[in-house]
Design brief:
Length: 191
């Protein structure tokens, strides 16, 4: 199900990041200072010369007051109440192999996004805090495999079927301790 990646997503990440940065009125230097990512790296990403990891992209989006889900939804197609599997944008993190599929139909004034994620065996993704007003939150519903979640100073060992609520205001670690990929749904409440 997850092997076919939408090449347009990868090609448009840099352009979308630059457009968002400009829309928010930030210079490269301001984003570099706020995110802790070098100006040179941001410039390479915006020009399409470097592919950001999920963690790096989350670090860049935080100061821009945007989530990964919101970022990918904004870069997708026109509104339609139905988004077929073949139309759902898929992106693979080049560092961890983490694969995210944007499931929710885009462009509607509904306060949630639904994302399908596959995390390879042994993979770990540490996401930085997303500071926003009001605070954003999400559910992580484990569909298959095992997942260790570290958030808000707590460690949660999850089995298939478990669901965890968390805010995005603290850093979060997603870790697959198993020998098989795990798959989970993220239900994100947008601002």
């Amino acid at each position: 199900m997850m092997e076919i990646l939408n090449d347009d997503i990868e090609k448009n990440i840099g352009q979308s990041l630059k457009a968002l940065r400009l829309q928010r009125g930030m210079t490269l230097d301001q984003l570099a200072t706020a995110s802790g990512v070098s100006r040179a790296m941001i410039s390479k990403i915006e020009r399409g010369e470097a592919s950001p990891t999920a963690v790096l992209l989350a670090r860049l989006l935080g100061p821009l007051k945007e989530t990964l889900s919101g970022f990918f939804a904004a870069a997708s197609e026109a509104p339609s109440p139905l988004r077929r599997l073949a139309e759902q944008p898929v992106w693979r993190d080049p560092e961890t192999g983490y694969v995210r599929r944007a499931v929710s139909p885009p462009g509607f004034a509904i306060a949630t996004d639904l994302v399908d994620v596959t995390l390879p065996a042994g993979a770990r993704a540490a996401m930085p805090p997303v500071i926003s007003e009001p605070a954003q939150d999400q559910y992580v519903w484990l569909l298959d495999g095992r997942l260790v979640m570290k958030c808000d100073g707590a460690r949660h060992e999850m089995q298939a079927g478990d669901c965890l609520y968390m805010t995005l205001a603290q850093g979060t670690v997603f870790e697959n301790p198993g020998s098989e990929p795990c798959r989970y749904a993220v239900i994100l409440r947008k601002n």
